[in-house]
Every structure is written in structure tokens, then in C-alpha cells.
Predict the 3D structure of the following.
Amino acid sequence: MKILVLGSKGQLGRCLNDQLAITEHDIVYTSRAQIDIDEFEVTKAQVLDISPDIVINATAYTAVDKAEEEHQAADRINHLAVANIASICNQLDCWLIHVSTDYVFDGNSEVPYKEDNKTNPQGVYGASKFKGEVAIEVSGCKYLIIRTAWVYSEYGNNFLKTMLRLGADSDELNIVGDQIGCPTYAQDIAKSIVSILCFLDLKSLSSGIYHYCGDEPCSWYDFARAIFLEAEVRGLKTPTYVTSIATADYPTPAVRPAYSVLDCSKIERRFDVTRSNLRDGINIVIDRLQC
């Protein structure tokens, strides 16, 4: 199959490069410099020219706090550009695999969110991602929307790498302890997407939304402690004191969901994929960063 990866230089895009490299698919990797999805007509001409069987959209506006000021920029990339991509996929009669977020929920649940639970984004970023989902659903294209959460890897900027950097420079850190989610290793997201590819030829497969995240709900504080534990084993400098604080003590422009654990049973049943293991993911990333 011919697969077009949009956003190949981002965190997930680079992991898709790693995982797709060991397949026999015909892969076209494009960064924003090659296909800028913000340029709708140019994007349409380029994608039609490539004529893929599958488009994987790994590009997004992800600056959660900055989005509170840059409403139009977030909406253009996460909503309008996605609507354009979905329309192109519909014209080509090809599949669209699109990555979305736990931020489409308000975080007020006490049990893991299922795909059909009510959405209620609390910030501009989450709202723009949700509008992108809706645009895909109404486009008429064949699609799989994969919602994930708390993504980290050896690439790009993410919480794990930030903790290692801050831990090496600071003796004391305060980390939010009352937001609960599931850290997800981006290589595992990419592996799951690759596993799903073989199902796209099945006529029985319907479009839909799926949740995929890590297997261990925890707070940012718990996540940080797990990172520092593994870092210490490898002889890296870590803080002497790590304190759990409340969200109210660390105000941010954008509201974060207090609880955004995702129920992954649907994707596990349908595609026989395994959720991302937190401890394994942390170990692999730290080892790779030390190489």
C-alpha cells in the first residue's frame, strides 16, 4: 500500500518513520516544509498527485497554552486543515488515520472515558481538535480517529525529557499531583498504527474513533517519580526533593483535564493491539537518550 505520512518530523511522525521502515509499504514522508497543511489548495494538489491509499495525519497545533491566545492558528491547523485533508481523502477514496487527544473531554469523569462518552473540551486546543474530529466524520471519507494522551518519546519536546533536563539542574522540583492520565510512548502509538494497517483492506472494517494510551494511570507527580527512579539507576543526576502540588498552585492559561484516563478496550478487541507499558517506555527512552 502507498502511505502518506503528514508531519513526519514531529514526535509521532519520527516514531512512524522508525516503525514503518521495517514494513514493505510504499511510504511517502512529508514534513511541514514539504506539505504545509495550512495551505489548503497546495496541499490538495500535492496529495492528489501522490495519490496514496492511506493518509496518516501526524501533524497538529499542540501548543496547549499558546492556543488560548492563538485561536485562529489552532483552529486552522487542527480543524480547517483537517477538514481539507478529509475532503481530499474522500475524493481519493483512501483511508485517513488521524491522531486526536484526551483534551476533547472535560476531565470530570471518575472512570476511564470510552469513545462514545460525551465530549466537552475546556480549552481552545481541545475544542479545535474536537472540531477536527467532527469535520472528518462528516466528510464522507473512510477514517480511523485515534485519541491518545500524555505522549512522550526520545524525540521532540515532552514531559519525560523536560524532567530529565530539570532534574539535572535542580535539587528541588514541584510537580502537579492532582491531574490523572496515562503516559503513552509514541513508539507504541506508531506500532499500533502499523498493526492496524493490515485491517484496512477488510470490507468489514467501518470508520470509527478509538482510544489508545498507556496502561498505567498516574499523576504528573507519579510520572516524574517513575522517570527519576529509572534515571537514578543509570547514574543520572536527579532532584533530592520532588514535591506534589495542586493544579491551583501551578496556574496555566489553558485548563487541563483533572482526569483523562482513556478506556482502550475497543482498540484492543478490534485490532489486537497492546497498550503502552509505562515502565518499559521510560526505560527505552532514557536508554536511547544516553546512547
In short: Residues 2-156+184-215+262-276 form a domain with the Rossmann fold fold (CATH 3.40.50.720).
